[in-house]
Amino acid sequence: MSIEKMTLVQLTGKLQVLDEALLRLTEIPRFHPEQPFQLSGKVKGFSPISQENPYKPLLQQLTDLAQLTGFELRPDPDSASAPPSPEEMRASLSALKDQFDKLSDYRKKLTGFAEENKDALALLERLQTLDADVDDIFSCEYVKVRFGRLPTDSYRKLDYYTDQLFVFVSLTEDEEYCYGFYFTTEEVIAEIDDLFASLYFERIWVPKTIHGTPEAARESLERSLEQTNRDLETVNEKLTEIMMQNSSFILSAYTRLSALNRTFEYRKYVGAYHDMFHITGFIPTADEPLFAERFAGLGNLSVDFRPHDSDRRFQTPTLLKNNWFCRPFELFVEMYGIPSYEELDPTAFLALSYTLLFGIMFGDLGQGLCIALLGFFLARCKGMEFGRILSRIGLSSALFGLLYGSVFGLENALNPLYHALGFTEKPIEIMSPVTMNNLLFFAIGLGVVLIVASICMNIVLGLRAHDVERAFFSQNGLAGLIFYGAVLTGVVSMVMGRSLFGNPILLSLCILPILVIFLKEPLGRLIAGSRPLPPGVSPGGFLVEGFFELLEVLLSFVTNTMSFLRVGGFVISHAGMMAVVLTLTEMMRGSGSILTFIGGNLFVMALEGFIVGIQVLRLEFYEMFSHYFEGQGIPFVSIAAESQRP
Question: Which chain positions lie within coiled-coil regions (predicted)?
């Protein structure tokens, strides 16, 4: 329930060990790298590293070789070591590739020949009714021949062209096309070609592999295709054999090249100075021994640990550190903003207050357990962090449901339990007029406690940062706390029938803090040793602007407090909605009554649960976070997490 302590670390070494250093760096669980641009251009000779990735083409060569044989490439840390340098790997891969290229070229030729034979066999299906020799047809000296297909509609239109010098012989016909030959003389071939083109004739070239009658050609092509397939199988076996003989090298090379290729993009975090490289980043202070041990065996490399704030050019990242209960609620904190390194982590406060408020506003034993079960399912089976939040607020809802005596809207279902425990009635009767009034007062009181706690946290943060204006003079500082407490004391005294607003002490505790809040900026500047007003700001302008800001402050205290009325309102609203569901259930008969009861509960859980969740989050963000949390930090992002991304 805090922010992890950080250490600034710098790696410095010779460029020849950069690849190995980056590989080891990506294996460090928690290392937040910084960009080297802060020094680039400021230190002579210092610049970010920018060069072409030498590992990508080598990795592509391996991938191409594996695709030729269907060999599965996978990282294999247990395989034999690959050559360490890109040059040595390039030489080894080149020798292996030469063996593959010859067989691969031959396989391409065989594959192309097999495809031609398959296409020819498919075409022969259209020539099956032909009882003439194909070679004789296309060897005519004075007659021109075209083979192809006509749309069926166009084939019927040929009767309109009986005056043209051509003959069309139909061989096969389906629903869309008619396949056949047309014959004409050489003198009018251009005119006839144009005529058939207007009828959407598609010419099909008869492959040179088709000879003789269609039946004889089919037998010849099938024999040729069988032989080609046998040759392809032999070539594939040889390729696979070569791949398996070199599998140890291939897997080890792939393992190393994949790691080097993946880490090459992390050179954006590396700065070079002559023949040296520098990598700067942050690690949790607790990880210093592990970090030093990881780089202990690497020569020409030094590791330097420094305080997190030793270099003002870098902003210390924030790594939240929470227990199992609060950790899922970091999701909500990150939605608002990451706390800076000097701030308090609000996750624990949010987790407890959110769980409490949701349970109060949505108290139902049965529905709460359903929400908790849904959360357990989403967390366990889907790995959703939001599911862990649902499980916690669902159990809170179930706990308050026990106090309210509500199970799926049935307000009297737990009466036997209460009687067995010695109670005459359930602890809280929501629909009682007295309870309704008390709920609203309780909601206001709970809001006051949470707002005061938020202001107190802001005071602590101001003191830690040595910010006097924030800690003492602001509306969220000591002045605001005194004013808020004095006004609340006066309001409570009025409710009790004895107003204290006429008391001079209470009146001064209301007026003086307002003046301090109004003058917070001049007071803060005076304590800091500066002029009361910034340059260019006139006293008149300050008074006008300060007046409207003060008016906004006073309104915000009222609205922040009254916003918590929704807590009591939703308690009553939930009970009312379930009363409607039960009324509709009683109006139905048989299975309709059961379906109405189930459907009504599902509707209320989905609709009101969603609305209550949003309203509680609104209270957290606007009525509590606004008092003490700025959220201007940067998240801690480990380079190891980046390397695991697809």
Answer: 218-245
